[in-house]
Amino acid sequence: xxxxxxxxxxxxxxxxxxxxxxxxxxxxxxxxxxxxxxxxxxxxxxxxxxxxxxxxxxxxxxxxxxxxxxxxxxxxxxxxxxxxxxxxxxxxxxxxxxxxxxxxxxxxxxxxxxxxxxxxxxxxxxxxxxxxxxxxxxxxxxxxxxxxxxxxxxxxxxxxxxxxxxxxxxxxxxxxxxxxxxxxxxxxxxxxxxxxxxxxxxxxxxxxxxxxxxxx
Length: 216
Hints:
With 216 residues, the chain is of the alpha/beta class.
């Protein structure tokens, strides 16, 4: 069975390098497509879903923004299981600062290159090993600035309130981007940060293996 992976903002499939699926499951990494002008996250999600063979049984794994997109796709196409990593299933689980950021139109006034530089700087104070830090730094550098600006606006305006069926949610207690206090994960990784997909991959693989085999 195919398991479709959706990465986070300013990221790509390289952030999933340590994730290993159980035997019998095939990883398929969905690459970003160009958003339409003023496109909503919901509309974008369904266009991205055109890359999924929905006639066959499948599963979704979404990281951060990718988890929001996975939730939108799951509400329409009903995968066998949807797994969110360091994400939220609905906009109700956003921290208050997201609402403030939209109100002041932060995505329009903040230079995108500043966002990229700040993201890279944060990696030097994170828990990833040196090799992973180098990969993340390169991933951020390679990201499209226009896409980042659109994505920030789309996230701030996201209005989904429907939690998909068969949804499981893995979250770290030290996630500062999407604090755990605002959401209700089914599985918790103690002291896991927003990029625990790289720094805590062993624990994630143990949880993912059990989830996928028991829910598909």
